[in-house]
Amino acid sequence: MPADLDELFTALSRQADAIPLAGVERARQRGRQRRARGRAALAAAAVVLVALGTGLAVHRPNPRPEPLLPATDPARIRGMAPVGEPLRIADGRMWNNTRIAGDRVIGFSADGNGGHETTAVDARTGAALWRISARESYYRGVATTPKVVILLRELEVRSEAMDEPVERILEFHDPATGAKTWELRHTDRDRFVLHQDVLVRLIGATTAIEGYDLVRGRKLWTAPAGSTPDDDSLPPARMISGMATGAITEDRTGSVLFNPEYADAVPMSDDRLVDMSRSGLVTIRDIRTGQVRSTMPGRAGAEDLSAYEGTIYTVVRGDGALNGIAAADRVIYRNEQPWYFESHIPCGRDRLCVIENDGNAPAEQPVARMSMINAKTGTVLRTTGAVPRYGDDSSRLGHVLTSSGGEKATTLYDENGQARYSDFGVGGFVDDGNALTMTQNAGDRNYQVRGVSNVDFQKVELGEIPEISGRCDWDEKILTCPAGQELWIWRFNR
Fold it and tell me: Which residue ranges does UniProt annotate as crossing the membrane (predicted)?
């Protein structure tokens, strides 16, 4: 690692009373694609199993006064306070995940036989609103948007040796009442795009594409295999993606509907749907009607389709490995030995940030770098040192945040690719002006929560929360976490 970065991270880590989280779990997401490793690592780092039946520490405000920092826009998060009392679950169970659905917090608890208990809590008061449960099959988790609560139900438990598609059901519930509004039977070979109003499905067995009203389940349109509603000359679609705009995370895909335990639902707002054939033809559709808006050439045999602000990105192979990135049909990046490609994320309009690891660096002293690339020309704008990581990437206002388990788990980079903050926590952006990290204490195993400004990169100690038992969720107003038998909600103070 370059000396200047090493000194930066050493200085930062002295301010963080934290230790690395143990164990980076690799989980299969988005089929068998390579980017699964990053998302699973973040989820695994955030999950610390809690021994059932033991007491949990309560939230303690930070007793040390924080320095008076200048006001920022958006306003700086300066503290947090619990909302009501934590919601307890029956003995012998624990909360696995919490999710936010508008003004509701949704807690999910799986039992040992595959059933579930799902409870809605008022995010303003902490009062329980409704509860649903089932025992008839294996429930893999819950995903939420402001308009729906989605439970993923698997009709048979997959084993590693299985090659056949696994039958699944997505159950859609009303966040206000918990009532089931519709369900969609599918297999784990299907692909999805989650839009704020529409659910799009690419059927793996036929390559037909379908659009559904997200709230009511009414089928809005169908593009038969290898065609459009008004043109049967297009080749079959192989991949689909929404068009991300503004702030972006790796979870702005359909991966949450493949395994909601490891991803949060971030529905698309743009009305463009992208599909790509094996031959590389890219088709842009209206996500509400399925009608074709335009087509363009792409990269034949490409993988891992994504789209941002009108630019289509794919991962491409070379020498038998995933080692390049194409924008439409133009390869804009190829890794060069000893560097190998780890992850990529759009970090501005027509700008791509690529994180690479040094293959010659010893395992105990990994070395990484970040390259910013002009997506139109492939020109490398700048290359800077980066923190070795495996996990989630996110971007707001041209700044990149990486978060994972292990050394220097969360790092915030500025628009020039310079690391401006790093600690051992897991976290992500709250809004354009703030990020959040949670670092586990060495002694009592509770978590120290910090707010980090995305404007001046200064941190504020927000308080201490109990040891968590699954993935937390947050938005610009609240943080919610599962903590063994208790479901907690905290409101941010600004």
Answer: 40-58
CB 352 within 8 A of CB 336: no
In angstroms, the CA 184 to CA 179 distance is: 15
Concatenating the DSSP letter of every residue in 434-461 gives EEEEEEE-SSS--EEEEEEETTT--EEE
Integer Cα distance of 240 and 178 in angstroms: 30
pLDDT tens-digit map of 238-257: 999 999 998 887 655 557 88
Nearest one of 356, 417, 418, 428 to 394, comparing CA atoms: 428
Multiple choice CATH, 3-493, 1.10.1200, 2.130.10, 3.40.30, 1.20.120:
2.130.10
Structure tokens at 296: 């363009």
CA distance 56 to 457: 32
Q: pLDDT tens for residues 431-481? A: 999 999 999 988 889 999 999 999 999 999 999 999 999 999 999 999 999
**Domain layout of the chain by residue ranges:** 3-493
Which pLDDT band, with edges at 50, 70 and 90, does 10 fall under?
very low
Number of residues that make up the chain: 494
Q: How far apart are CA 419 and CA 411, in angstroms?
A: 7
Q: Where are the beta strands (DSSP E) in 230-363?
A: 237-242, 248-249, 272-277, 281-286, 292-297, 303-308, 311-318, 321-327, 330-334, 339-346, 351-358
And the tokens for 394?
């996110």
409 C-beta neighbours (distance < 10 Å), count: 30
Q: In terms of Cα–Cα distance, which of 368, 267, 366, 248 is closest to 313?
A: 248
**Per-residue model confidence (pLDDT) at position 485:** 96
Q: Are 77 and 493 in contact (CB under 8 A)?
A: yes
- The CA distance from 101 to 351, in Å, is 32
- pTM greater than 0.85 (yes/no): no
How far apart are alpha carbons 468 and 57 in whole angstroms? 11
Q: How far is CA 27 from CA 128, 185, 242, 257, in A?
A: 32, 23, 23, 14
Q: Which two tokens stand for residue 412?
A: 């915030």
Q: Residue 163 is encoded by which pair of tokens? A: 């090659």
d(C-alpha 383, C-alpha 373), whole Å? 9
Question: b/e string for 137-150 if b means 16 or more Cβ within 10 A?
Answer: bbbbbbbbbeebbb
